Amino acid sequence: MSAHAQFESPPPRSWEQFEELCADTFAAEWTDPALVRHGRAGQRQHGVDIVARHGARWPIGLQCKKKSKWPVKRLTTQEIDQEVMKARKFRAKLQSFYILTTAPDDTAIQKHVREINEKHASSGLFNVEVLGWSEIVRRATLHAAVARKHFGGSSNEPPSPLLAVLFASQHLLELKGVDLSLTCRESTTQLSRNRRGPHKWQLLSASFMDYAMPRARKLPTFITALSEVPAPGNPLGVRAGGEGGTTPALAVVINAIVDALSEFGVPHVEMPATSERVWRAIQDAQTKQRGMS
Predict the structure, then answer these.
(1) Given this model, what pLDDT does residue 93 score?
(2) Contacts (Cβ under 8 Å, ≥6 apart) of 242
(3) Angle at 265 between CA 262 and CA 268, to 5 degrees
(4) DSSP, res 13
(5) Phi and psi (nearest 5°) for 187?
């Protein structure tokens, strides 16, 4: 028996990692080496993130919907209806359409999908399948290479998924709205692992063994510019080196978080920007807006 059957696997930290997990899982599940990820963020995809073949059935469209772990977000019937309508516009005509989500499996969702399939069968349209996180994990861990890549070789071999991947076009982020907000909120959890234990008051970021250090390949491209402002406190106008050049990074990260949360009315987030602190800032802002309306 696989060691993965004995443990609960958390969803990936980023939508990019989740999409890659889904692509790897179904390429192995359906023995489809030609499976391809369709477009990328910011491009019109008609609800299809991955195009695959299962035996003689082609094309099969897969839509990957990552949901927040905390606060918990669930897949809704309205979202399913919206994605199905988009998939009907995909060319060539789909044979099957899968919605893959990190949300929990839900009997009400499955009932709604069966009703859609009854209507589609009478109209000659594609069948729809919705797979929740536990079912995706079950299928993924049936394939050793996929399980090793995304979940580690065993319970003692944890995975190292991407912190986040943010695509940019003409120096502007392509992710917007809720997707950008979700990415920033979950990334802050990894950037700020400096909480103390509730009883022992022990730092949880005492070394790089515990602190999630973001690497260059996990971040978007940057534009660099020189801003030469002489220091007024000495004749040469020189400023100190060392850590002075890194301190603006803290403000940049917080500004990015606040910008992503602006649609919720959040004006400021205190450091460290933990997931709980970000969530509370959203709740406080929304409570304040309801009080003003």
Answers:
(1) 93
(2) none
(3) 75
(4) S
(5) -70, -35
Residue 143, pLDDT score? 92
Domain C-terminal end among 121, 151, 181 = 151
Residues 276 and 217 in one domain: yes
CATH number of the structural domain spanning residue 51: 3.40.1350.10
First-to-last C-alpha distance (Å) of the chain: 57
Last residue in a domain, options 117, 151, 185:
151
pLDDT digits (tens, 9 = 90+) for 252-287: 888 888 988 988 889 888 887 877 788 888 888 888
Which residues of the chain carry a pLDDT beneath 50?
1, 42, 155-165, 192-195, 197
Is 207 inside any structural domain? yes
CA distance 105 to 102: 9
215 residue type, one letter: R
pLDDT of residue 26: 96
Give residue 17's Cα distance to chain centre.
7
Residue 237 has what pLDDT? Answer: 86
Distance CA 45, CA 65 (A): 13
Kindly report the pTM of this predicted structure: 0.54
Task: Count CB neighbours of 59 within 10 A.
Answer: 22
- Note whether 12 and 160 are within 8 A (CB): no
Number of structural domains the chain divides into: 2
Please classify residue 69 by burial: count the beta carbons closer than 10 Å to its beta carbon, then call 0-12 exposed, 13-18 middle and 19+ buried.
Answer: middle
Residue 250 lies inside a defined structural domain of this protein: yes
Burial of 133 (0-12, 13-18, 19+ CB in 10 A): buried
